[in-house]
Amino acid sequence: MTRGPLFAVGPKPPPPPLPLLVILLVVAVLGTRGGSCYASAADRPQPPVEIRAAVILPADAKFIITLSKVMPVLDIAVRDLYAKGILREADVTFKFMQKDDKCEDIEAMRSGFDLILNGRVDLFLGPTCDYGVDLVARMIKFWNAPLLTTGGFTNDFSLDKRDPKSKYFLLVRTGTLDFQDIADVVLSVLNRVFFRYSWKNVLLIYDIDGYWRVSGKQSCGLMAKTLVEMFKGNASIQYDTFDLAKNPQNNLTENLRNEVGPKYTIMVVCASPSRVRDILLAAEELNMIDSGEYVFFNIELFSSLNNESLTPWYVSNDTTERNERARKAYGALLTVTARTPNNDAYRNFSVEVKRVAEEKYNYTFGNESVSTFVTAFYDAVLLYGLALNETLASGGNQSDGAAIVKAMWNKTFTGITGDVNIDANGDRIADYSLLDMDPETNEFKIVANYIGVKQSLEYVPGMSIHWAGGRTNPPPDTPACGFDNSLCKTMPGYAILSIVLSSVVVILAIASALIYRHYKLEAEIASMTWKVSYNDIIKVPQDKWRMSMTSLIRRNSQRTVISEDLMSLMSQCEYGRQMFIQTAFYKGNKVALKTLKRSRLELTRARLLELKRLKDLHHDHLVRFYGACIEPNYCCLLTEYCPKGSLQDILENDQFKLDWMFRYSLMHDIVKGMCYLHSSELRSHGGLKSSNCVVDSRFVLKIADFGLRSLRNNHTNESNSDSDSYAYWKAFLWTAPELLRLSHPPPEGTQKGDVYSFAIIVHEIVTRQGPFYLGNIEPLSPKEIVDSVKSKEKCLRPSVADLSCDEEVGALMKRCWTEDPADRPDFTTLKAVIRKLNKDYESNNILDNLLTRMEQYANNLETLVEERTADYLEEKRKCEELLYQLLPKSVASQLILGQSVVAETYDNVTIYFSDIVGFTSLSAESTPLQVVDLLNDLYTCFDSIIENFDVYKVETIGDAYMVVSGLPVRNGNSHAREIARMSLALRSAVHSFTIKHRPNDQLKLRIGIHTGPCVTGVVGLKMPRYCLFGDTVNTASRMESNGQALKIHVSPQTKEVLDTFGTFDLELRGEIEMKGKGKVTTYWLLGEKTPTTEAGTADPAGTTTATTPAAITATATTGTATSATTTLALAGTAPPVNSIGSFSKMHTTNSVGSSSAKSTTNSIANHNNITASTPLLQGDNG
């Protein structure tokens, strides 16, 4: 048997002979396995299935994967198989048969044959050494037994294994390492990091037996072979190989100098950790590390969680000097390794493995960590259990290795080493990590992860690669001076002479330029380009400004013509706070006008020079100085106008939402402006505070009130001459303590004083509580605060407790307001700190920053609009709900839209009328408030009952109650049934109704119902009413007035409709004389038979059967007590609706249903007069 391409790298050992006896044994075993065993099994009863698993691994502890380490893992895995319910112990048992293969291919094959000859083998766990996997994996397909291994790293095993004819058909790899995957990771890193910087030459350094403890001989040789195959497929990579086995250890430094230094600057290394350390020490000796022009890329085939993997440069038995050299050399090393789980579950599992190994297998791990190559056998057993369970469930058996292996393909589950994804080729898709040494801790940390499922390299947030030699980017493909310094040749003498002469010429040119600049400066000072004529200034009168603003506020339809700055004033200041600055127009530009309290201005050379400097000062974060007017009695300064107001105004405006992106941007703007100001000839500000940090229309913060400090201070002192005023002392809250202690501080201030002022502003931005917020401390007046700051004993500062900001911001404030000015950072340092805080929110593109800020402002306005819209919609909903209680929804919707409501005819509806017998006498014997409570309780009860029926309440007039069904929404013939059931429910409720002030009296309800045609319409525009017209209304009223107490009087028309349902119990009353109708045969409604359909189901009439009246009555009665506590007039919200002929009744309803208790009392007290004026209810006339 030949070993094929597996031995393409390194010395090729002679292939072992395969004797004829071995081949005959294979044939004999195959015949035995397929013959008598299965014949005899068919005759036996079915005992638990025994899985005979062959564990073929080295026994020598020098290897990473050994029998004594793996067997505890297998025991725990079988236990968890049963515990998780994947397999049942009563159905399946495992028998592990151990064999020592010594990590040799022939021993592995011999172990396999021995186990097969001694009995059936259902599963092979191992071998893990590549050459042993190669031989055993070729044989297992003849034995139809799967082979699961955490080894088998070479790319030969990555070839397609799905075809039963392939060499490794039944091989499944569950380990966390694959040479092909590592090659993909290396190529991904090279493409992602190096080749974007024009890297193209790579040297592959390998020690052919570098990691023999993991996978046996030629481990790194096979890894190098895989990388070479990968590089061959990439035309952009120029590569070469360097075999350490062919170069003696004592000549390593010389070999690197001769073979590596002159050709390559990037090296991929695969060797044992000790050999990697020797390579890096040799590179450090050749100055490859300090130059920062060489990068080493280490492939680590085995890693662990112990400190040796985190600090591989340190060797305890080496000298301190060599360890220090190694530490520096490892700064040029990047390491790729299999991703190791680092969680509590894995650590607990490792502890359990060590315990079982010591107790059952007499093996002690000591400080050695449990390798993922060992723990991955746990995942292999879980995978086999899942596949076996699936195979047995589908009718297969444990001897069908092909079916079990196919069940493992494309399988995903959670194992002890993380998520286990087996692809369609039976290989685990593993993840890998890229490690770099942190120069602060000198430990290797993960900077990127290669996600195997995504096949992508993802950087860890907040982590970056540290390059040797202090570089911020990878070094170039070729050193600056070339590999042999040929590009940095020494210059000849004539070149030196040329440089000297050129230098003299340059010096003379500079001197000439300085002289020219001096005379030009004097000319510019004399020209006074900053001077502004008063006639060019167009002022805006304050009274006209206020008048125009008020006019625009009143005319909402014209708000679109308001300029952006005016809208800012209106929205943020309630036309006040930002209007203290006087504005004017100068050459078409709106400017801020600062009038000086001087009749004339003396122009000294120093003042002229300062005015020129202000005119020439241009920066995005400094207010532009247009000029100054020095005409007598009109002295003023003209600066850029920023319509959004000052930073102080924005911070005090609670409606303006400031997220941290916006706050950091404001801080950054201040720092950039101050940094430029400090580097200019002005040197300092001297009065920095939130009130002179202004914001323009694009939300860019600009610093104002700098320069000409003598003029500004004089103006300030005059305006704040009262030293006891609040405003006078508040102006000093931003002043540094060392300046407060001076009797005559410099007018222009100091740079360190500006830093202190910046700290107070940052505190304002963070807290939005004004300057010098002291938290829970008792509030102090500005004078008390200034005195405490000035005092060296107290050293009062704003409170930084419980700030909702990053700790770096709090530390920044403390550094800036420290007592000693020398300890405060300058604005250049602050600029770097703020840029770091703001790096996620701000780009280097000015347009992007402006757009981001405008978007933030727009979002803030959108939030305010949404809140106002939500409030409006909520109020609209309440109004509509109230309107829908007064009018039908369809009618109300038409009225809201401004449409006229056309009268509508209904062919058949049923109308209900009821009255309380003896209500007049009951009212006479009760107080008005008692009558109100009685009617409120009664009609609240009625209202809760009728909600369960398809009816519409028309009106309540005193003790009368009118309801209709069949309008405004037609419901076929169900209207009669709905009214009948409602009547039964109301009558039942009256039986149990209790009058609170006369609990022993029984309330007697008289009910009449009638069915017939009807016309509806809306009457009037002021307080429109939904009215019913037609003889049906009169007849229904007369049915009630001719009825009897606690009885339901039914007309023949209603009786005819009710008979169609066949569920109502009606009793003939006989003929009665009815006004306008003559003699009419009427009926009493006694009740309803129990419906055959369940509540809520459809009946033959096509409507839904309502809940039984008794149940509804019980529900309504229960809720009466609660509703009775309200003081609503009569029955809560009585809709302003009327029926034909009841116009006096309409007025009565308004009186009784009004919210005034007085009018309600009077209306009920005159109940006798009310009923006399409503003949339709009494049946007096037609």
UniProtKB/TrEMBL annotation:
Origin superkingdom: Eukaryota
Name of the protein in its database record: Guanylate cyclase
Secretion signal, residue range per the UniProt entry: 1-34
UniProtKB keywords: Cell membrane, cGMP biosynthesis, Glycoprotein, GTP-binding, Lyase, Membrane, Nucleotide-binding, Receptor, Signal, Transmembrane, Transmembrane helix
GO molecular function: adenylate cyclase activity; ATP binding; GTP binding; guanylate cyclase activity; peptide receptor activity; protein kinase activity
Entry EC number(s): 4.6.1.2
SMART domains, sorted: CYCc
Domain Guanylate cyclase: 910-1040
Top-rank EC class of the record's enzyme: lyase
Catalysed transformations (reactions): GTP = 3',5'-cyclic GMP + diphosphate
Species for this entry: Sipha flava (yellow sugarcane aphid)
GO terms of biological process kind: intracellular signal transduction; receptor guanylyl cyclase signaling pathway
GO CC annotations on file: plasma membrane
UniProt keyword Protein biosynthesis present: no
